[in-house]
Design a protein that fits this description.
- The complex is a heterodimer of chains A (407) and B (433).
- Chain A is α/β, with parallel strands linked by helices.
- Chain A folds into two domains: 2-58 and 82-266, Rossmann fold (3-Layer(aba) Sandwich), CATH 3.40.50; 279-405, 3-Layer(aba) Sandwich (Rossmann fold), CATH 3.40.50.920.
- Chain A is 30% helix and 20% strand.
- Chain A has a seven-stranded mixed β-sheet with strand order 6-5-7-8-10-9-15, with helices on both faces. A five-stranded mixed β-sheet of chain A has the order 12-14-13-16-17, with helices on both faces. A three-stranded antiparallel β-sheet of chain A has the order 1-2-3, with no helix packed on it.
- In chain A, helix 4 (143-155) packs parallel to helix 5 (174-181) and helix 9 packs across helix 13.
- In chain B, 42% of the residues lie in helices and 10% in strands.
- In chain B, the strands form four sheets. In chain B, strands 3-6-7-11-10 form a five-stranded parallel β-sheet, with helices on both faces. In chain B, strands 1-2 form a two-stranded antiparallel sheet.
- Chain B starts with 11 loop residues before the first strand and ends in a 5-residue tail after the last helix.
- In chain B, 48% of the residues are buried.
- The chains are: A alpha/beta (407), B alpha/beta (433).
- Chains A and B meet through helix 4, helix 5, helix 6 and helix 10 of A and strand 4, helix 7 and helix 8 of B.
Chain lengths: 407, 433
């Protein structure tokens, strides 16, 4: 069940293999290079596509990036005059987690390989050395039981963060998540609260095979009593991690395997985001595109094409998968009257299906066209790269869908 | 790499000596009740460890024998009593409360005051009383769906338990849990679980918190123990083994108590388990496994003292298998046709209440009148509980959405921009979620 894979190996997955030509990239010049490095594409949250070289976490030198859109001076260094600090998404998660552990001694981490190994995606790297083996607990491979143990610890006063090495492994913990995590606050008449955070990477990666490419948000969404959020940028990853830990409710935080190496500049000051709010990524007038997690980047890439074609899409990253932020979504629908949902979840019973129902129920009068929902195919994710690409939504499909919707 | 949890590799092999099977049936007799069982530790890592283990193991071993001896001695010589008078009265009151309460539940069920699945504990009172009466208020208890008596032993008032069964708002869980989900934060009863095995990880978590508080939060006096009760059927479930592993690995302060009543609804323990001696599974994970006569509250109490003491001292978990029996069916809906009437008669003759009474009379601990007074007191208590539950109100509609989330912001933001929980329909319970 637990496949061991190198962090960097998984991170070399390119985001857009079919629709993107790497030859057209400006490759950066690097000030100084040491150690081995891996090249990959980084998409910034404002939609610019950037290439950069990634060093292992202990790099000390700044490195240079260039943006295709702005054709920045390649010799320009990463400046220190801009506020905030730059980091990768997994580092942002770690920063958020560490700040919360510093703030509250009851916050602890449990999971496979979170301690000495530093986490299979390095989200908990260094924490065990700092906080000890009990606070950052390496568990045996027993998801159902250690998730239940986390729930029991939460009921008796701790605030555990349970990591599923891959979200798919949490299928083994479904008993505890459904029966105990969601229900016990209610069943006990409000006596016990369960401030647990269950997090881990999910989604379709780079040829990881069917079982490691699952999207569990569709399975968990019906469980009463839990909240689900999905992060997509370093900024919202840190903010949502902190919010989830501080929340008194059980929260499932969905991360994506391919987004861990996104780079962004985030504020130095402490900030906590709201678990229930959606994020306006790009305001627009013609169509509302609702998305979350990795598909946000496919949408933003499609948005560039759409803008060139004269459309003005409004892109919202819903972030809160359960409950939906009906205000942000509704305000957008009332403005544009057309909705496209782009998600990586499966077509049947996915988040998109629920969202379609919620929008139809609440905002039917404001729609000029039926809601379109682009989801992954109901296919166990194949290993072959070409087949895998055809199971998830690609930017070209998004462009076509918007054109169809706006006829 | 030095971790804080390098488990002491203690392998305790237990051998069954004295296979004197007092069975009336051929091969299908359950192994256990008439055996004396010894734990003899085999080679362990270091001499000091093995010495400590030897001491501990021998004190844990052969409890049934030791207790039997003590009992025989005490009958003749009047010394070495297992229990003082005060303790005896406390224990007696608790077992009688359990019995009378459960009998009243059956009555109320057939009168239509409670519904659903109700699982009664008649016959098993010795296990609940034997363990829970040794616990402090801060110690945690985790149970299964057969949890009424665990709740009562832990200190949840009979009124609250009965109200919960009637589904009234004055119940310990506001009527939202029911028979199978008894919870009490005040008395540290953390469930009440409907699926077997799913409470064991919860118990492991509670024990983890206790250890965490001692070692990370530096609350030096935190020695809270968790006792997890579950049945023989659960011992074939993965969660049981996963938790035995984790508890032994991290030396969590927990006691795993198997209430082996030989039947999982209609499935005999012998038909479902390759090795029916459950206590043996403890040493496989590095913890002592003890078998005790679960129909005798004093024997259970002796074992419990040792196991709870171990956990409190930080020596780790213990697996205790109590051989017991339920006099009624699995639940009130179970016609109970499969069990052999002879078997039932044999165990009825070992009724824990009768055995306790006999012991106390033979050792001149109490007089008849004192026990009768307790009987009367309990009868009145249970009658009062029924009256209270009858007169209590049903939950109102406003209760429907109140406890779904600890932080009701979890219902999200509505189309009007406000959090949905601010909508008055939420406090009224008429909103749709």
């Amino acid at each position: 069940m637990a496949a061991t894979f190198q962090v960097l190996g998984a991170a070399t997955g390119l985001f857009f293999s079919g629709s993107f030509d790497p030859q057209r990239l400006h490759l950066p010049s690097i000030r100084s290079v040491s150690e081995r490095r891996t090249g990959f594409l980084v998409v910034r949250s404002d939609g610019h596509i950037v290439s950069s070289w990634n060093f292992p976490a202990r790099r000390t030198q700044q490195f240079i990036t260039s943006s295709i859109a702005t054709k920045a001076n390649e010799a320009a260094s990463a400046t220190t005059s801009k506020p905030g600090h730059e980091l990768l998404l997994f580092e942002a998660l770690r920063e958020g987690l560490e700040e919360e552990m510093e703030r509250d001694p009851c916050v602890c981490v449990m999971g496979e390989d979170v301690g000495h190994y530093g986490g299979s995606y390095k989200v908990t790297k260094g924490l065990a050395e700092k906080y000890g083996d009990l606070r950052v607990l390496d568990t045996p491979i027993a998801e159902n039981s250690f998730t239940g143990m986390g729930i029991g610890a939460a009921m008796t006063g701790l605030r555990p963060v349970v990591e599923g090495m891959n979200m798919g492994f949490l299928l083994l913990a479904f008993n505890q998540i459904s029966n105990n995590c969601g229900m016990l606050h209610y069943t006990s008449g409000g006596q016990f609260k369960i401030p647990i955070v269950i997090r881990g990477p999910g989604g379709v990666g780079r040829q990881l095979g069917a079982e490691h490419s699952q999207r569990l948000e569709s399975y968990f969404q019906s469980i009463p009593g839990i909240q689900m959020v999905a992060c997509s940028t370093p900024y919202n990853a840190k903010g949502l991690m902190k919010a989830a830990i501080r929340s008194e409710n059980p929260v499932i935080l969905f991360e994506h395997v391919l987004l861990y190496n996104l780079k962004e500049r985030i504020p130095d000051e402490e900030y906590v985001l709201s678990l229930e709010e959606a994020e306006m990524v790009r305001p627009g007038e013609h169509v509302t595109i609702l998305t979350y997690s990795r598909m946000r980047y496919h949408v933003m890439q499609a948005a560039k094409t759409l803008v060139n074609k004269g459309y003005d899409p409004e892109v919202i990253d819903i972030r809160s998968l359960k409950p939906f932020d009906l205000y942000t979504i509704g305000s957008s629908v009332k403005k544009t009257h057309r909705v496209l949902i782009v998600e990586e979840c499966m077509r049947t019973g996915g988040i998109g299906a629920s969202l379609t129902a919620a929008i139809t129920e609440n905002f039917h009068d404001h729609l000029d066209a039926p809601i379109m929902c682009l989801s992954s195919q109901d296919v166990p994710t194949p290993y072959a790269g070409t087949l895998e690409n055809w199971t998830v939504v690609q930017p070209a499909q998004i462009v076509t869908a918007v054109e169809q919707l706006c006829q | 790499m030095a971790t804080a949890f390098s488990s002491i590799n203690v392998v305790q092999h237990a051998r069954c000596d004295n296979f004197s099977v007092a069975s009336r049936k051929p091969s299908s007799a359950f192994l256990g009740s008439t055996y004396s069982i010894r734990l003899s530790p085999s080679a362990s890592r270091s001499a000091s460890v093995s010495a400590a283990v030897n001491r501990k193991a021998s004190s844990v071993s052969a409890v049934s024998e030791v207790v039997k001896e003590k009992k025989q001695k005490s009958v003749s010589s009047g010394s070495n009593l297992l229990i003082t008078k005060e303790e005896g009265l406390e224990v007696y009151e608790d077992v009688v409360l359990g019995r009378v309460f459960e009998d009243m539940c059956a009555q109320m069920y057939y009168r239509g005051k409670m519904f659903g699945f109700v699982h009664l504990y008649n016959g098993q009172e010795a296990v609940s009383t034997g363990f829970i009466k040794l616990l402090k208020k801060e110690d945690c208890v985790v149970s299964t769906y057969r949890d009424h008596v665990h709740a009562l032993s832990k200190g949840v008032p009979a009124r609250e338990v009965m109200s919960e069964l009637f589904g009234k708002t004055t119940g310990c869980c506001r009527g939202q849990g029911g028979s199978m989900h008894m919870f009490s934060k005040e008395h540290n009863l953390i469930g009440g679980f409907a699926f077997i095995g799913e409470g064991i990880p919860i118990a492991t978590g509670a024990a983890f918190t206790s250890k965490y508080r001692r070692e990370v939060l530096k609350e030096a006096d935190c020695d809270h123990v968790t006792v997890a009760f579950f049945g023989d059927g659960t011992c074939n479930n993965g969660q049981f083994y996963e938790c035995l592993n984790m508890a032994a690995l991290w030396k969590l302060p927990i006691v795993f108590v198997v209430e082996n009543n030989l039947w999982a609804i209609g499935m005999s323990h012998l038909r479902s388990t390759s090795d029916p001696e459950i206590w043996k599974k403890g040493p496989a994970f590095g913890m002592p496994g003890v078998h005790v006569d679960g129909m005798d509250v004093l024997k259970v109490r002796e074992v419990a003292k040792e196991a709870i003491g171990r956990a409190r001292r930080g020596e780790g978990p213990t697996l205790v298998e109590c051989e017991t029996y339920r006099f009624r069916g699995h639940s009130l809906a179970d016609p109970d046709e499969l069990r052999d009437p002879d078997e039932k008669a044999r165990y009825a003759a070992r009724d824990p209440i009768a055995a306790l009474k006999k012991y106390m009379f033979e050792n001149n601990l109490v007089k008849e009148a004192e026990l009768k007074a307790i009987d009367k007191k309990i009868d009145e208590l249970v009658e009062d509980a029924v009256e209270f539950a009858d007169e209590s109100p049903q939950p109102s509609r406003s209760q429907l959405l109140e406890n779904v989330f600890a932080d009701p912001k979890g219902f999200g933001i509505g189309p009007d921009g406000r959090y949905r929980c601010e909508d008055p329909k939420f406090t009224e319970g008429t909103a749709h979620v």
